[in-house]
TrEMBL record:
InterPro entries: Ala_racemase/Decarboxylase_C (IPR009006), DAP_deCOOHase_LysA (IPR002986), De-COase2_N (IPR022644), De-COase2_pyr-phos_BS (IPR022653), Orn/DAP/Arg_de-COase (IPR000183), PLP-binding_barrel (IPR029066). Its cofactor is pyridoxal 5'-phosphate. It comes from Christiangramia antarctica. This is Diaminopimelate decarboxylase. The modification N6-(pyridoxal phosphate)lysine is found at K48. HAMAP family: LysA (MF_02120).
Amino acid sequence: MTHKNLLSVAEEFGSPVYIYNAEKIISQYQRLTNAFKVDELRIHYAVKALSNISILKLLNSLGCGLDTVSIQEVKLGLKAGVDPSKIIYTPNGVALEEIEQAVELGVQINIDNLSVLEQFGSKHPKTPVCIRINPHVMAGGNSKISVGHIDSKFGISIHQMPHLLRIVENTGMHINGIHMHTGSDILDIGVFLYASEILFEAALNFKELEFIDFGSGFKVPYRPGDIETDIEELGLQLTEKFENFCKEYGRELALAFEPGKYLVSDAGKFLAKVNVIKQTTSTVFAGIDSGFNHLIRPMFYGSHHEITNISNPKAKDRFYSVVGYICETDTFGNNRRISEIREGDILSFSNAGAYCFSMASNFNSRYRPAEVLWYEGKAHLIRERETFDDLTRHQIEVDLTSSLGKLVEKN
């Protein structure tokens, strides 16, 4: 998408606005599927990254399945037309009743808790279950997105394998998959290869496996020239290890991954208008018509989003701190070198496809923005901007006048 394309979207749909490039999503999916030369490759897109139904439909049209973490995400996937057999459901800390709802919808269940596993196996021994293992591998670009280490709430510890096997034996459960996810923004493919050895060893304990799921966590570039996970090299090395394991196991299994950010991060742009330029004694602030209610990742994770002034891209570069309109510390970038910003200019934030709109809120009673899909050279509105009616739709006004009057009289 060119600057002209982006500006046309901001003009047509207003700002702030999210826009996603379908061609980039498609090319990322094809790059991933081309990297792993196995008999059966299963890609399950992590819905939590970006859950708009139009995005799910696009990925479904490519043959992609879904990785879901809530019953609501399961239902979104089904509404988007995804076959339940291509949806894996991996909750954490949910009630058994929610897992049973997922069973009724026909999706693949993935359990990461010994207690839940025993309860589920006792009630549903014939339902195929995948087990999420915690390999105790520290990986990820930030402590908040590293989920395979020893102190993580996710997964069943590899050291609890004897207990796990007793539960499976006592309940007669059918274990058809084994799974891990060590974290996000993993650069070193050695982490995957090391964790794969742990997962392969654990898999030998189960005789009826259909697939092995390595989660995801592939790092994407956030800055020009930034390094990223070498998918092609990982594909070569992990494919070889996987094929050797299948020979040892005695039959071919499916190899599965659950990419989210990898597929949609770089496809997304977030556009916001500059409301004010504020010069202080030490800083020039560019205040935009948005805040961490729309894009929380910089404040939450300390994540980096490249910021470009698409209204004035050829002007002389100056240094700005780009901030939002939320009544809290609300900074998108400190001391960034950006082409001269004027009030009314449109700024474009890169890598806005993953964990951006999906984490947006109505903090400060602000409306969540519109979403647009750029497909075949045209802008398609895929979510309307919220209105005041949306803010109040589920609120119930209670008449407290008489009670307050009595309280005033009493005092």
